[in-house]
Amino acid sequence: MGALDGIKILDLTQFEAGTSCTQLLAWMGADVLKVEPPAGEPGRSMIRDLPDTESYYFLLFNSNKRAITLDLKAAKGREIFERLVRQSDIVVENFALGVLEQLDLEYEQLKQIKPDVIYASVKGYGTWGPYRDYKSFDMIAQASGGVMAVNGTDETPPLKPGVTFGDSGTGVHLVAAILAAYIERQRTGEGQHVEVSMQDAMVSFGRTGFLAHYLTGGMAAQRYGNRVPFMSPSDLYPCKGGGPNDFAYIMCSTQRMWHAILRVVGREDLVGDERFEEQMPRNERCEEVCEIISAWTSQRDKMEVMRLMSEAGVPCGAVMDSADIFSNEHLVAREMIVEMDHPERGRIKFPGCPIKLSRSEKLEIVPAPKLGAHTDEVLSSLGLSEGEIDELRREGVV
Asked: Are residues 99 and 90 in contact, defined by beta-carbon separation less than 8 angstroms?
């Protein structure tokens, strides 16, 4: 059994911030039932590359779930949903504020149906505060949460990171909130409404990078690019090949690491040199330090640089692009890159579950469900006959 086996979740999420949360819970064994309108959630067709199947975007965030179609605006659809709520532990949603309120499906209503329900929400700016009605997407949250302001250099405008911190980062925060509420319910028998705003999550992620700077200096954090300020050498260094991702990041935080770097790059003559021996002098000669290391890294492949530095005890990471990631032997060994069979796409590689539990059973990662794939199964479990299900389908309720 998976760690969360037996926990039933109704998944009303769409796009990424919410779906990344429920996917992680499904990977850990929860029974996640994705509830979509009969036309499907918008993510199914987002960034679509093939006309007759779900987009990779949808597949990335909906594996290991079941799926049912249900028109929540229809009286019969509402009735079926209420019956599903009674059988569930958790309801997760990431609609814009007001959408579920208009359907009378917010927490206070569902609490009347199931008093101990845990109702989990992702909102752009939360359900209270001056910005509560503002809409948000990933990059909006990154901008308003301080992430873009510290990304880039003094010569660039604020930059959007290439990864979706605003969406998936918020989803991870919501997983923690849901599990905390579930554990608390085990103790008290009571449910509650938990929420994470995307802006709040970004401020939380950025507290080291910009809040500490502001709190200690009373000024906005600077953009340092790839360098860690006041810790030379800590930078991105060019490697052999000259491609856009032929770089390795080397970080040095102790004098021992500095000596190890000098030995690896063949500059033992600089060990003990007062110009570089201590941190402050190295910071003052940052460009010289960079030239010393770059002269060596530029003659070697990025993976070789990573291996040699790491073997010497120096933290170093090759800049791995998507092609590197999906073929990386370490990630394959850790089952972070897995293969699965998709009915239309055939054998495909996908990112796996990053959470590793020593005792709980690892679940096989299976493709995201087709639209409404489990509708008949779920409705039958509620006691509806085949004829009743057909009638619901003719009426457009499912």
From this structure: no
Flag whether pLDDT at 213 surpasses 90: no
Tokens 């609609």 locate to 95
Residue 138 — left, alpha, or beta (φ > 0 → left; ψ -120 to 50 → alpha)? alpha
CA 47/CA 53 separation, integer angstroms: 12
Fold match, 8-205+332-394 / 234-238+247-318? no
CA-based angle 259:213:278, to the nearest 5?
20
Task: Clarify whether 11 is annotated catalytic.
Answer: no
Name the pLDDT band for 212 (thresholds 50, 70, 90). low
**H/E stretch holding 212:** helix 212-217
Q: How far apart are CA 281 and CA 221, in angstroms?
A: 23
Domain spans of the chain, in order of start = 8-205+332-394, 234-238+247-318
pLDDT tens-digit series, residues 312-350: 999 999 999 999 999 999 999 999 999 999 988 999 999
Given CATH 3.40.50.10540, say whether it is the number of domain 8-205+332-394.
Answer: yes
Q: What contacts 119, CB < 8 A, 6 or more positions away? A: 90, 91, 93, 106, 107, 110, 111, 191, 192, 193, 194
CATH annotation of 234-238+247-318: 3.30.1540.10
pTM for the full predicted model: 0.93
Q: Which of 11, 31, 138, 167 is catalytic?
A: 167
CB atoms within 10 A of CB 356: 11
Q: At residue 363, what are phi and psi to the nearest 5 degrees?
A: -90, 140
